């Protein structure tokens, strides 16, 4: 039964739009402090300072991506790339506009699979899957593949506080790609892990893209965007600067980096 | 599509994300997604209890020993101050301390449930209410073994058995709902002010003294009438007065609790759970940008 429905699903997806972002904006209020406390709030109040700052993380962004595309998201730090990814994943609801996402989304937006370092890798994989809405059976079906791909050996049954950062990375990546996603959102996944695993990860992502899955890759490594993606989005200060062929977008982005913001009129885009 | 699928929203082909109206997500969709992920609550609660050794023999003994030792300390304190304290009072004190420890547990662990969930919140979209609710379940399973100890004490101190004891679970229920609601409020506050949890122990301690734990409910009424006049109703402003008072009356003294206790405990718990859930839900979409 499942094989038939999967075939149908794939053929439906191959013609449909994977992600449609329409005039989306996100504005939120946040504080300067990394750990906001009541004490500092009182101190600020005493000084008459405003502790809350309004952040316009994403402003009036629209684009459409058909299924089967690998989209590279590029831009400087704080351009709103990660925020945009979180909005597509449904983690952050937009404050304006509308996002339509077709299919199952799997994310690798923050390092680490689960959240409790006292628990084993296995427990964290199960908890992450359950929170994401999978059933226990579905997680068990995938579990062996996840553990094998991550190459953690016995560490999978050890508390995650004993993991090295590369191990964290490998497990997190393995979970994200083995969730059978229709749409995979990855943030800087290739920046850590050793060379062998990087290659393995890149191969896995190409494999997913080849199977008509859609992928969003946030990266500062322009070369990997050029290699892996057939579509690119360039964000700057929360605005969409350009959407198109990776080669052209990267060339424009490089020009922008060289000549600076002043040489560009933002309204052109 | 597949019979084993729990979550229609997760597998359905299209998700639409739009701004929340009036700051709240759609209730039907939200609570359906919450119900579909109920397994998460069980799993997280179970694994975190295992990580804290709660499921081992000594872990279980400690869960009982801790409030029991606390009860001994207070028993001695009351004995010194009043010069008298009998076995009936001991039974009341222990039963009330156990229930209060349960409530304090929900409050404390509920308060840090969201800030402790960092990575999962950043990575996955799910109804955040799962986190404080998990803490309620964990606290409840820590409360259960203490009940067994109380029953032994109930027999040892020669307390009566009566049908009113069947009312005791009613008060546990109101206490749970009240604790859950308060836990959600504190969990939200903790996201905005990380030092909220530092105030909690003082608040909890103060609450312990102002609730009928070190004194009987009727003693509180008599005392307040003596000092302030005919304003015994003031006691009902403390939600724990009705909940813990009713718990001790029905379970330890096996007498029918006053009707206001039955009504006020239900009313307070409903107010707390509705306020807590709505407050938490109205703020939860901001959690990711505040963590």
UniProtKB/TrEMBL annotation, chain A:
Q: What molecular functions are annotated in GO for this chain? A: ABC-type transporter activity; ATP binding; ATP hydrolysis activity
Alphabetized UniProt keyword annotations:
ATP-binding, Nucleotide-binding, Transport
SUPFAM superfamilies in alphabetical order: P-loop containing nucleoside triphosphate hydrolases (SSF52540)
Q: Which domain of life is it from?
A: Bacteria
Q: Name one GO cellular component term.
A: membrane
Q: Which residues form the ABC transporter domain?
A: 43-262
Concerning Pfam families, the annotation shows: ABC_tran
CDD domains documented for this protein: ABC_KpsT_Wzt (cd03220)
Per the record, the similarity remark reads: Belongs to the ABC transporter superfamily.
Q: What is this protein called?
A: ABC-2 type transport system ATP-binding protein/teichoic acid transport system ATP-binding protein
UniProtKB/TrEMBL annotation, chain B:
A GO term (biological process) for this protein? lipopolysaccharide transport
Principal location: membrane
Membrane topology (UniProt) = Multi-pass membrane protein
Q: Which residues form a coiled coil?
A: none
Taxonomy, superkingdom: Bacteria
What start and end residues bound the annotated signal peptide?
Answer: none
Q: Which residues cross the membrane?
A: 57-77, 89-107, 139-158, 170-193, 260-281
One cellular-component annotation, GO: plasma membrane
Keywords for the protein's UniProt record, in alphabetical order: Membrane, Transmembrane, Transmembrane helix, Transport
Instruction: Give the subcellular location.
Output: Cell inner membrane
Recorded family membership: Belongs to the ABC-2 integral membrane protein family.
Q: What is this protein called?
A: Teichoic acid transport system permease protein
């Amino acid at each position: 039964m499942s094989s038939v429905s999967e075939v149908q699903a794939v053929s439906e997806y191959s013609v449909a739009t994977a992600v449609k972002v329409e005039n989306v904006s996100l504005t939120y209020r946040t504080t300067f402090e990394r750990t906001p406390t009541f004490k500092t709030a009182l101190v600020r109040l005493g000084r008459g300072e405003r502790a809350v700052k309004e952040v316009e993380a994403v402003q009036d962004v629209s684009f459409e991506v058909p299924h089967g595309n690998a989209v590279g998201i590029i831009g400087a730090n704080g351009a709103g790339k990660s925020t945009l990814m979180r909005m597509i994943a449904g983690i952050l609801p937009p404050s304006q506009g509308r996002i339509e996402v077709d299919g199952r989304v799997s994310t690798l937006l923050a390092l680490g699979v689960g959240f409790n370092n006292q628990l084993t890798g296995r427990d964290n994989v199960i908890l992450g899957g359950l929170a994401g809405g999978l059933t226990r059976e579905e997680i068990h079906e995938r579990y062996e593949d996840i553990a094998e791909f991550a190459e953690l050996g016995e560490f999978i049954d050890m508390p995650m506080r004993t993991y090295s950062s590369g191990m964290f990375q490998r497990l997190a990546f393995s979970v994200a790609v083995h969730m059978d996603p229709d749409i995979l959102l990855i943030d800087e996944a290739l920046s850590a892990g050793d060379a062998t695993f990087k290659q393995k990860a890149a191969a896995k992502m190409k494999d997913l893209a080849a199977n008509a899955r859609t992928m969003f890759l946030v990266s500062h490594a322009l070369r990997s965007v050029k290699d892996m993606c057939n579509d690119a989005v360039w964000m700057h200060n929360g605005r969409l600067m350009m959407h198109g062929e990776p080669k052209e977008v990267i060339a424009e982005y490089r020009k922008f980096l060289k000549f600076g913001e002043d040489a560009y009129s933002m309204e052109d885009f | 599509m597949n019979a084993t699928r729990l979550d229609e929203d997760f597998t359905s082909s299209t998700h639409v994300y739009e701004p929340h109206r009036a700051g709240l997500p759609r209730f039907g969709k939200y609570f359906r997604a919450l119900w579909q992920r109920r397994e998460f609550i069980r799993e997280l609660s179970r694994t975190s209890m295992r990580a804290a050794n709660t499921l081992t023999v000594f872990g279980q003994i400690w869960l009982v020993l801790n409030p029991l030792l606390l009860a001994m300390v207070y028993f001695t304190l009351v004995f010194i101050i009043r010069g008298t304290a009998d076995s009936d009072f001991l039974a009341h004190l222990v039963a009330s301390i156990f229930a209060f420890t349960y409530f304090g547990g929900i409050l404390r662990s509920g308060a840090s449930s969201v800030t402790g969930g960092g990575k999962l919140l950043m990575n996955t979209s799910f109804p955040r209410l799962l986190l404080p609710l998990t803490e309620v379940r964990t606290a409840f399973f820590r409360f259960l073994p203490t009940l067994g100890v109380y029953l032994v004490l109930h027999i040892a101190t020669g307390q009566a058995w009566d049908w009113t004891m069947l009312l005791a679970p009613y008060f546990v229920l109101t206490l749970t709902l009240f604790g859950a609601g308060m836990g959600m409020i504190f969990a939200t506050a903790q996201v905005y002010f990380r030092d909220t949890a530092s105030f909690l122990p003082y608040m909890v301690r103060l609450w312990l003294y102002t609730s009928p734990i070190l004194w009987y409910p009727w003693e509180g009424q008599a005392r307040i009438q003596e000092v302030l006049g005919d304003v015994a109703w003031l006691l009902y402003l403390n939600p724990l007065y009705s909940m813990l008072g009713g718990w001790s009356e029905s379970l330890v003294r096996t007498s029918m609790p006053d009707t206001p206790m039955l009504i006020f405990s239900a009313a307070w718990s409903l107010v707390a759970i509705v306020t807590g859930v709505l407050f938490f839900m109205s703020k939860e979409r901001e959690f990711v940008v505040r963590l």
